[in-house]
Amino acid sequence: MSTVNGGISFWYAQEGASAPREPLPGDTAADVCIVGGGYTGLWTAYYLKKAVPFLNITVLEAKFCGYGASGRNGGWLYNGIAGRDRYAKLHGHEAAVRLQQAMNATVAEVVDVCEREKIDADVHRGGVLEVALSPAQLTRLKDFHTVEIAFGETDRVLYGARETAGRVRVTGAVGSSWTPHGARLHPVKLVKGLAAAVEALGVTIHESTPVTEIRPKHAVTPYGTVRAPYVLRCTEGFTASLAGQRRTWLPMNSSMIATEPLTDAQWESIGWEGRETLGDMAHAYMYAQRTADGRIALGGRGVPYRFGSKTDNDGRTQARTVEALREILVRFFPQLAGVRIDHAWSGVLGVPRDWCATVTLDRSTGLGWAGGYVGSGVATANLAARTLRDLIQQDSGQSGPTDLTTLPWVDHKVRKWEPEPLRWLGVQTMYAAFRGADRREALGHSARTDRVAVLANRLSGR
Ligand SMILES: Cc1cc2nc3c(=O)[nH]c(=O)nc-3n(C[C@H](O)[C@H](O)[C@H](O)COP(=O)(O)OP(=O)(O)OC[C@H]3O[C@@H](n4cnc5c(N)ncnc54)[C@H](O)[C@@H]3O)c2cc1C
C-alpha cells in the first residue's frame, strides 16, 4: 500500500467528516457571529452559549468544521503558549506566571469538558516529554527546564539518558524534560465532538460559507450577510485570505506522517508506555504521539511558507518533506527503517510578526479575534475562547473584569509582516539557517547553541 498524501489528514481518513451542514441561506441576524469552525470558533461558541443560553450564535465556516489546523494537528494538548517570555518582558514576570498557570489549568479543562460532554477524543494524560539529542540540545533543554520552573512549573522533571530511555528509547537521547501538563488526543475526534456539542446547545453552524469581508457588525459571504453586534475572527492560518488581513498572521506550514500500526515487538523495543507526547530541542523541531491504534504520528516543519501567504491544497505535502519526516522517524527509532508510512499531510498555523498569541475584543467596533498561536493552539484555543466569552460579557455589562480578561496576552498589538518578497525571503532564510544549525549541532560536540541559529532567532523576532 502506498502513502496517502493529503486528503486533509490521516485523522480524517480514519474518522471521516461529519454530514455536511447547510450553507448560510441568506441575510440574517445574530447576537454573536463567529467566523471559522476550528477549535477557537467552536470553543468560543460553546462557552458563550453555556454562559448565556439565550444568545443567538452563528458560526460561519468556509469548508467544514475542523478543515484547518484543528483537524490536522499533532494532538499535543499541552500547556505551551506562544509569546509567554515576551509577555514577561512587557508586563512583568508575575503576569506571565499567571498566563502560564492559566495554560496549565487549560489542559485539565479540555480533558474535563471532554469527559462531561462525552467527547471520546482518545485523550491520554501522559504529559509531554522533550528530549535532547546532542550536547547543544542538552544545554538548551536544561535552560528551558530552568525557565519553565521559574514560571511556576514546579512539577517538571529533568531526566538523564538512562531515565529517558526508561520512558521512550529514542536513539541518541542524552536527556529529557517531562511535564505532567500535557495529553495526547485525536484532533478530529475532538473537533467533531465539539461541533456536535455546540449544535446540541442550540448554536447554528453554516458550513461551505466563506466570509469574504469582516467589518463592524457585519460578516459578508457570497450567500448573504450576518449582522451581529459582535463578530469574531477565528481563522488562524487562513486569516491572510480575508480583506485587509494579508499581512496580519503569516500562514506557516507544518507537515505530518502517520506510520502503519506497529507490532507488539516494535512497541516493546521502543517503550513509550506512558504515551507522552514526544518532542525534541532542534531549532526546526519535531513532535510526535503514539496514537490510540498503535501508530506513530510525527510532524515537523517541511516547506515552511508559500509565497504570497498561500495556504493549502487540502493537506498535500511535497515528497521531500515526507522523506525528511521519515528520516527523523528512523533517526529516532532505527528499528522502524522498513515501516510503512500510511499517510502524509500538512496544514497551516498562524504566526504573528512577534510570535505572540493574542486574544482581543475591540470595544469600539465589537470586532474580536484570537489566534497567532504558532504551533501550540490545541490548548491555547480553549483559553482564548473562555477569554472571549469573558470579554463579551464584560463589554455587554453582564460582568466585570475577570482573571482571564486581565491576562497579559489580552488586547496585545503587533505590527504587520513585511510585504513580499521580503516575507518569503525572510522565512526561507530563517529555516535554512535552522536546518543548517541543526545539522552542525548533530555532528559537533559543542554544548553551545549554533551561532547562526541564535542570529536567525534574533532577526526573525521568534
Ligand atoms: C500540522 C499541524 C500540527 C500541529 N500540531 C499541534 C499540536 O500538536 N499541538 C498544538 O497545540 N498545536 C498544534 N498545531 C496548531 C493547532 O492545530 C492550531 O493552533 C489550532 O488548531 C488553531 O485552531 P483555530 O480554530 O484557531 O484555527 P483552524 O483550526 O485553522 O480553524 C480555522 C477555520 O476557519 C475557517 N476559515 C478560514 N477562513 C475563513 C473564512 N474566510 N470564512 C469562514 N471560515 C474560514 C477554516 O476553514 C478553518 O476551519 C498544529 C498545526 C498544524 C497545521
From TrEMBL:
Its EC number is 1.-.-.-. Residues 31-391 form the FAD dependent oxidoreductase domain. InterPro entries: FAD-dep_OxRdtase, FAD/NAD-bd_sf. The keyword Magnesium does not apply. This is NAD(P)/FAD-dependent oxidoreductase. Pfam families: DAO. The lineage of its organism: Bacteria, Bacillati, Actinomycetota, Actinomycetes, Kitasatosporales. One of its GO terms (molecular function) is oxidoreductase activity. The keyword Nucleotide-binding does not apply. Transmembrane segments: none annotated. Keywords: Oxidoreductase.
